[in-house]
Design goal:
two-stranded antiparallel sheet; 15 helices; globular
Length: 356
């Protein structure tokens, strides 16, 4: 298969399964609190606890780093960076990032307000009422990594797009040096979160940008090294699981290192599947991925609480069933809703999904 086609189809294919992985991450059935009372805790259910760590704690955690990696790669892909190019990209990101970010943040605030007014007994009781928000709370909604801003991924992309001339200059004039430094910090779990942004998103975005600026076809690169990447990733997953069971001090390092290798390992897996035609791009699912990202979080939270409330007392079987069923049902429903909106409200849908 032609390298450019392999690259395009690999990235296109990954969008939807990675978004489903994010839905799984946000299925917080392991930690349900209602009215200030903790109803579930993963350690109470041994089999569920292991499964939850394997999926949510390990495998699906690669999704967000890989999204940042792909975003950095595509931002600088086949372009000679200049101020004209920069301004053009800024203008396009207003449509694809900024407008959806504003809309979905406002929609989530409105949804939470309605829930707080109509269903207060169904909430965790841990968060400030929207009606009581002051200036600092509204600043947090826009900028901080708080429960009321699950769209921090889009926010961080906006920041890095704005800062892209600096990122470009760093990679051009100091080459791999800042990337290695950021990679070491990310592997050590040193994230240094301020109000917004952290080391890990910056590292993965810059890593993708490095491949792109050096004209490396990342799909072909990972495909050629697939055996080594997959073997190393499996080894690191084993180390991660061992550390989780035995709780040594270096658990965090094993986990963070597995994410770094996992980014390339997942690219290798997808590229190999596309090359052998065992995996194929479904344009409908790919188009629905961004909508799924924007809408899924409150639904998974609601569905998880409803599951635990209706089926209490919980058991290992009930926890596992809910953990597997909830993300599946939420995904199917939201893909269906996206297709409905795209058919009957195409302009509105295009605006809130950034034209995707």
């Amino acid at each position: 298969m032609q390298s450019d086609k392999l690259l395009s189809q690999t990235i296109q294919f990954l969008r939807f399964p990675l978004m489903v992985a994010v839905v799984v991450i946000h299925t917080h059935i392991a930690d349900i609190a209602i009215g200030g009372e903790q109803l579930t805790q993963a350690s109470q259910y041994p089999f569920f606890d292991v499964l939850y760590h394997l999926l949510t704690g390990m495998l699906t955690r690669v999704a967000v780093p890989l999204f940042f990696f792909i975003s950095g790669y595509l931002f600088f892909y086949k372009c000679t960076f200049s101020w004209q190019v920069y301004l053009k990209k800024l203008k396009s990101r207003v449509k694809t990032l900024l407008i959806p970010y504003i809309f979905w943040n406002a929609a989530l605030c409105a949804m939470v307000l309605v829930a707080q007014l109509l269903f207060p007994s169904f909430l965790s009781g841990k968060n400030t009422l929207v009606l009581d928000y002051g200036v600092s709370e509204w600043v947090d909604v826009v900028f901080a990594n708080v429960p009321m801003n699950p769209f921090w991924f889009i926010r961080d992309l906006i920041i890095m797009v704005v800062a892209s001339p600096l990122i470009y200059a760093m990679l051009k004039y100091t080459r791999w040096v800042p990337l290695v430094l950021l990679g070491i910090l990310a592997g050590l779990g040193v994230n240094l979160h301020t109000t917004a942004m952290g080391i890990e998103p910056l590292f993965y975005f810059m890593w993708g940008a490095y491949f792109s600026l050096n004209k490396i076809n990342v799909a072909q690169y990972c495909l050629n090294k697939r055996y080594a990447l997959l073997a190393l990733y499996a080894l690191l997953l084993g180390a991660d699981l061992y550390c989780w069971v035995n709780q040594p001090a270096y658990l965090l390092y094993a986990h963070k290192t597995s994410l770094i290798v996992g980014v390339l390992a997942f690219m290798a897996w997808a590229a190999r599947g596309i090359e052998t035609q065992k995996l194929k791009v479904n344009n409908t699912l790919t188009d629905a991925a961004f909508f799924l990202f924007c809408v899924h979080n409150p639904l998974t939270v609601f569905a998880s609480k409803l599951w635990v409330t209706c089926l209490s007392p919980m058991s290992d079987v009930k926890m596992v069933a809910g953990y597997l069923i909830i993300p599946l049902v939420v995904t199917v429903l939201l893909v269906g809703l996206y297709l409905f909106l795209r058919r009957y409200l195409p302009r509105f849908t295009a605006i809130i999904t950034g034209g995707r």
